[in-house]
Write a structure and sequence with these properties.
Layout: H1 3-22, H2 27-37, H3 41-57, H4 63-67, H5 72-80, E1 85-86, H6 92-97, E2 100-101, E3 108-111, E4 117-120, E5 125-130, E6 135-141, E7 143-147, E8 155-159, E9 162-166, E10 170-176, E11 179-186, E12 188-195, E13 198-205, E14 208-213, E15 218-223, E16 236-243, H7 244-252, E17 258-261, E18 269-275, H8 279-287, E19 293-298, E20 301-305
Parallel strand pairs: 6-8, 17-20
Antiparallel strand pairs: 1-17, 2-5, 3-4, 4-7, 5-6, 7-10, 8-9, 9-12, 10-11, 11-14, 12-13, 14-15, 16-18, 19-20
Helix pairs in contact: 1-2, 1-3, 7-8
């Protein structure tokens, strides 16, 4: 079977599953499903695969998600978005608004009008704003490392409600799952972040990192060697007391499929150094100590589960 035919059958199967979920007592839907499955082994295989995806994603999937889908990757991405999610791709809205976007495993070096520079991590998106009165950037997805050209007016980087500003610093900023991470390798930065409904301002010097979990309203801080800041530029992920979804999000930028963390790990935290030469092996290293497994359900979806 051609890939396009397989995509089409999975799309149809997902639509039928959603219709059954929305109207479980509707016998017309039940008969339509049985008729559809009876058309052959390819239909039955697509049905089984779609049921696996729905069990992972749960009942939060909406028919609107599938109705707007035009490819297998988009269908699976919609399914993953309903679970406890870590997606390898940046939020679609971020791509639309972005001046710069990277793909899977792609690093991109940027030079700004004021002489500042940045390295954009894989599967990331950024918009920039440089005028006579402003030098700023919005990190819309993923991660970036900034080197700020010295000036009286600081460079300001915004990221989902958090703001990092510095007149001359070198720092990394990322949004991983629902966690912000900032690490500084030169100069100082001012971090202004929402914590439990209030703005919290923190000055971070070179050689330190700060992690803020938005969902748990927790703040972690500690030392980091300057040469380990934004280590993903050398295909290494360094984690210190970070949640499993946050660490998985960093690794997932190097994988083409959607990566989903299924419920079961809670807010367990991990520390370690993970080599991105083999991202799937790195994922296994993250969850194996907790009894977790990495399952690539299709080429478009990998699920990490605690069973």
């Amino acid at each position: 079977m051609r890939a396009s035919e397989s995509e089409h059958l999975l799309h149809e199967a997902m639509e039928l599953i959603l219709r059954r979920h929305e109207a479980p007592a509707d016998m017309r839907v039940a008969r339509r499903i049985e008729t559809w499955k009876s058309q052959g082994s390819a239909h039955r295989e697509a049905w089984l695969e779609a049921e696996k995806l729905f069990r992972v994603a749960g009942p939060k999937m909406s028919s609107a998600t599938v109705a707007k889908s035009h490819s297998r990757r988009w269908v699976l991405g919609g399914a993953a978005a309903a679970a406890v999610v870590v997606s390898a791709a940046p939020f679609l809205g971020g791509r639309v608004k972005a001046d710069y976007v990277t793909g899977t495993g792609e690093l991109r070096s940027l030079m700004f009008p004021d002489g500042s520079s940045a390295v954009l991590a894989p599967d990331s998106a950024m918009s920039v704003h440089f005028t006579g009165n402003e030098r700023a950037a919005d990190l819309l997805a993923g991660a970036s490392f900034f080197q700020v050209a010295a000036a009286a007016r600081p460079l300001t980087v915004r990221c989902f409600g958090l703001t990092v500003s510095s007149p001359d610093g070198m720092f990394e900023l990322s949004r991983d799952s629902n966690t912000w991470n900032v690490a500084v390798s030169g100069g100082t930065v001012l971090v202004d972040a929402p914590v439990m409904g209030r703005r919290q301002r923190t000055t971070l010097p070179a050689g330190e990192w700060l992690s803020i979990d938005e969902g748990e309203a927790t703040v972690e801080r500690g030392p980091r060697a300057k040469d380990q800041v934004a280590a993903w530029r050398e295909k290494i992920v360094i984690a210190e007391r970070e949640t499993i979804p946050a660490v998985v999000a960093k690794i997932a930028r190097w994988l083409p499929e959607t990566v989903t963390v299924a419920p079961g790990f809670g807010q367990r935290r991990v520390s370690g150094i993970f080599n991105l030469d083999d991202p799937r092996a790195a994922l296994n290293t993250v969850v194996a100590p907790f009894g977790g497994k990495v399952r690539q359900i299709t080429p478009w979806l990998t699920v990490l589960s605690a069973i």
